[in-house]
Design a protein that fits this description.
The protein has helices spanning 8-22, 48-53, 55-65, 84-89; strands at 29-35, 40-46, 76-79, 97-100, 107-108, 111-118. By secondary structure, it is of the alpha+beta class. Strands 1, 2, 3, 4, 5 and 6 form a 6-stranded mixed β-sheet that branches.
């Protein structure tokens, strides 16, 4: 069936969330990823906080930083720089747009990913 498109409202809300979260934690990269298991797009925030303090601390900070009315926390995933998906994407250009990846390249601790939507210069 393929990956459903990422809608413009999600892209806009994602930018608002990233701007707010950057004030609370260091953000190395942020992008939308389509997770195969739950069959949904989730905003992925890459932060060193996951590796240094753990994902619970990162989610706790995110919960307080996400602006009301944008995205529910369940649609946001935090990954550390050491995550396999993040490492594979490290050399990917940061121009805005969608990228389809193979499932083997998209395996992460949070599940399998088959499409990515990058934000530029995050």
């Amino acid at each position: 069936m393929g990956t459903p498109p990422l809608v413009g409202a999600d892209i806009k809300d994602g930018r608002r969330v990233i701007d707010a979260v950057r004030k609370a934690i260091p953000v190395r990269r942020a992008f939308w990823a389509y997770f195969v298991g739950p069959e949904e797009w989730r905003l992925v925030i890459v932060t060193s906080l996951v590796d240094s303090q753990g994902p619970i601390a990162a989610y706790d900070t995110l919960q307080r930083a996400i602006p009301a009315g944008t995205l529910p926390l369940r649609r946001v995933t935090v990954l550390g720089p050491s995550d396999s998906l993040v490492k594979r994407l490290a050399s990917t250009p940061r121009s805005e747009g969608a990228v389809t990846i193979t499932s083997s390249a998209g395996s992460t601790a949070s599940g399998s990913v088959d499409s990515i939507y990058f934000y530029p210069k995050v």
